[in-house]
């Protein structure tokens, strides 16, 4: 039986973790966010309501759950107060029965945000950071000049007063829940390939979003963990800079593209669908940029936090097998399978070619990774819309084949397939690694 479950992003983030966390939260008693800060962005759709969170675990919308922002995180007090007040406006009563902050999480201060401004800091620009002060705050934590939330909330500012009643030594609450066999969900932000140790350094975030980070970021031991689930899109995206072997089109082409918000302002629905049709046609003629753009349009691949168009590419098995290994995944979850609709053929990267040699293990040397050319296996696509399909066996044959082939290639079972943002668009294939 699974009582404790860690959820990690398997790729470069934005895999749809929020929705899967929300789905599994129904059965959880306690939800712990363990790393990162408001560089993350979760969109959760429940019924007709869309919720956007940056810091608060998405479990907050379930009224009877306790959510903890763990010691591994960095908290911008103003942002957190705004999220709490927005929820209060929607009728949620946020007190310490719903939300607790670890006293040893670190505080993002104005100086951290000033330092992380991509317009004035060349390194933030190169990495493509979210500019939220994440890196400088973790830097202060590591050199031991940081300010912990437990201390900050005694500073007497408006935000400090609002947050003070929520601060606890949260390891006690979490370990107590474990002793009582409560269901505890550890919610990762960012993702494996953005991990400060295991990601594509230096194009990474400043924390450990991988499974190990769930332990240090919350104060529990490895013997307490029953299952680790990795979330993967049926393709792959990346925001910010850095190598990307299966990228479709170039980073610059994506950057040049209008953000969808501008597009929507300027284009009617009909013009939008014409744009989609044009890209479907070109994608199926083999135009790589159009293939990437189609994934962007159909997958709505524009940043929740920054609005930036995301770079898109084919599923990368080399990187996925790496994520399976370093997180010790019990199973994978595949999201956004519906986005692959309209493609005659779908590529999957099964190995890299680097300096004329075939490479099957993800290289850690960034220079090697930058030279990696994808070796593809091509699978047949499907035209049917699948976002209303409720059971795996009712998917088009080629969609089923795609999922099964990825299970084989990644050497990991796939426990859930998701075909849309709503809870109802979630198919559980095997629940033995889930709550
Ligand atoms: P930082 O976390 O703001 O320092 O940004 C470092 C890198 O991580 C940049 O490439 C960001 O775009 C990326 N990043 C940070 N948070 C997320 C996320 O939630 N999703 C995807 N990328 C992220």
**Global structural class:** alpha/beta
**Assembly context of the chains:** single chain
End-to-end Cα distance, whole Å, is 8 Å
Q: State the CATH class of the domain at 4-231.
A: Alpha Beta
Number of strands: 20
Radius of gyration: 21 Å
The neighbouring-strand order within the major sheet is 9-7-5-2-10-1-11-15-19-20
Low-confidence stretches: none
CATH topology of the domain at 4-231: Adenylosuccinate Synthetase, Chain A, domain 1
Q: Give the cofactors and ligands.
A: inosinic acid
Name the CATH homologous superfamily of the domain at 4-231: Adenylosuccinate Synthetase, subunit A, domain 1
What does this structure look like?
By secondary structure, the chain is of the alpha/beta class. Among the domains are: 4-231, 3-Layer(aba) Sandwich (Adenylosuccinate Synthetase, Chain A, domain 1); 251-313, no CATH class. Helices cover 32% and strands 20% of the residues. It has 16 helices and 20 strands. Strands 9-7-5-2-10-1-11-15-19-20 form a 10-stranded mixed sheet, with helices on both faces. Strands 14, 16, 17 and 18 form a 4-stranded mixed sheet that branches. α12 (269-284) packs antiparallel against α13. The longest helix is centred in the middle third of the chain and has 16 residues, at 269-284. The termini are close together. The protein binds inosinic acid. Inosinic acid binds at residues 13-14, 39-41, 127-130, 132, 134-135, 189-190, 194, 203, 205-206, 239-240.
């Amino acid at each position: 039986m699974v009582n404790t479950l860690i959820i990690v992003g398997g790729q470069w983030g934005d895999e749809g973790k929020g929705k899967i966390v929300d789905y599994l939260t129904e059965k959880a008693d306690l939800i712990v966010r363990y790393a990162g800060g408001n560089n993350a962005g979760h969109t959760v759709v429940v019924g007709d309501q869309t919720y956007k969170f940056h810091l608060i675990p998405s479990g907050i919308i379930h009224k009877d759950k306790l959510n903890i922002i763990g010691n591994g995180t960095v908290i911008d007090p103003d942002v957190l107060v705004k999220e709490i007040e927005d929820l209060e406006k929607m009728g949620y009563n946020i007190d310490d029965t719903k939300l607790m902050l670890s006293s040893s999480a670190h505080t993002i201060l104005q100086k951290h945000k000033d330092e992380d401004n991509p317009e004035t800091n060349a390194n933030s620009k190169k990495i493509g950071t979210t500019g939220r002060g994440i890196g400088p705050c973790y830097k202060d934590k590591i050199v031991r000049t940081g300010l912990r939330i437990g201390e900050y909330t005694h500073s007497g500012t408006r935000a400090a007063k609002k947050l003070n009643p929520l601060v606890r030594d949260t390891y006690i609450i979490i370990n107590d829940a474990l002793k009582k066999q409560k269901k505890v969900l550890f919610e990762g932000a960012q993702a494996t390939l953005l991990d400060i140790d295991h990601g594509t350094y230096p194009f990474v975030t400043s924390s450990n979003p991988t499974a190990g980070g769930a332990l240090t970021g919350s104060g529990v031991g490895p013997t307490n963990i029953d299952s680790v689930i990795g979330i993967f899109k049926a393709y792959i995206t990346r925001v910010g800079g850095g190598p990307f072997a299966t990228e479709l089109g170039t980073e610059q082409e994506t950057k040049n593209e209008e953000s969808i918000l501008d597009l929507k302002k300027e284009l009617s629905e009909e013009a939008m669908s014409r744009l989609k049709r044009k890209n479907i046609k070109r994608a199926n003629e083999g135009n790589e940029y159009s293939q990437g753009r189609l994934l962007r349009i159909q997958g709505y691949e524009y940043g929740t936090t920054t609005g930036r168009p995301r770079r898109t590419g084919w599923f990368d098995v080399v990187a996925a097998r790496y994520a399976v290994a370093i997180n010790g995944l019990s199973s994978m979850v595949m999201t956004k399978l519906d986005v692959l609709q309209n493609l005659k053929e779908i590529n999957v990267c099964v190995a890299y070619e680097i300096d004329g040699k075939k490479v099957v293990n993800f290289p850690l040397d960034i220079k090697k990774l930058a030279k990696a050319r994808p070796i593809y296996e091509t699978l047949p696509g499907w035209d049917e819309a699948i976002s209303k399909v409720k059971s795996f066996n009712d998917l088009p044959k080629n969609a089923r084949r795609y999922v099964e082939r990825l299970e084989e290639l990644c050497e990991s079972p796939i426990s859930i397939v998701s075909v849309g943002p709503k809870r109802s668009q979630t198919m559980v294939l095997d629940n033995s690694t889930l709550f």
